[in-house]
Specification:
single chain, globular, alpha+beta, four-stranded antiparallel sheet, 6 helices, 171 residues
């Protein structure tokens, strides 16, 4: 792949353009499958795709940004480099024994609500994606979904995830 040469001031605009293009492609892809094959099929395929992408994304982020450590700090770094962190404005809170990820904006859900079609059930898709990220970063990290659609959630927050070390977890 050949990346064009940019002036420093152009690079930020290009990154924003590429991340937004990814977001729009993902959204239109889902809507197209939903329209042509139905909601249930779109959910199933979306889950399959994003479960695989969790592993791919985690591996590539760790390689490209030389993340060699394990544990919650490594997970927080990987999540911060995720394009979805930029798109959805992940709020990543690192505490002594846990990492909490809150998602105040979800462009997919916000667009659906704006069109009056309601939220789609994304909890299982994100759970599988995050489980696969954790598998690459550190298998001893446990995941708890505090809430995610279709769960009820506060208006200002679409989903919330909690990660803790589970040293009893099998390698």
């Amino acid at each position: 792949m050949k990346i064009p040469q940019f002036k420093n001031e152009e690079m930020q605009s290009y990154i924003e353009f590429m991340v937004n293009l990814l977001r729009r492609t993902d959204g239109f892809w889902f809507l197209g499958v939903e329209h042509n094959c139905g909601y249930d099929t779109a959910i199933k395929i979306n889950e399959e795709v994003w479960h695989r992408m969790g592993k791919i994304m985690a591996k590539e982020i760790m390689e490209k940004f030389s993340i060699e450590e394990k544990g919650l700090k490594a997970l927080a770094k990987v999540l911060r480099y995720s394009p979805w962190s930029m798109i959805s404005g992940f709020e990543i809170e690192e505490k002594n024994e846990e990492v909490v990820v809150s998602v105040p904006h979800c462009s997919s859900q916000e667009a659906r609500l704006k069109k009056g079609v309601g939220e789609y059930a994304c909890k299982d898709m994100h759970l599988g994606e995050l489980e696969n990220i954790v598998e690459i970063v550190d298998k001893n990290i446990g995941i708890e979904c505090v809430f995610a659609p279709p769960d009820p959630h506060p208006k200002e927050l679409f989903c919330k995830w909690c990660f803790t070390m589970n040293n009893d977890k099998a390698e």
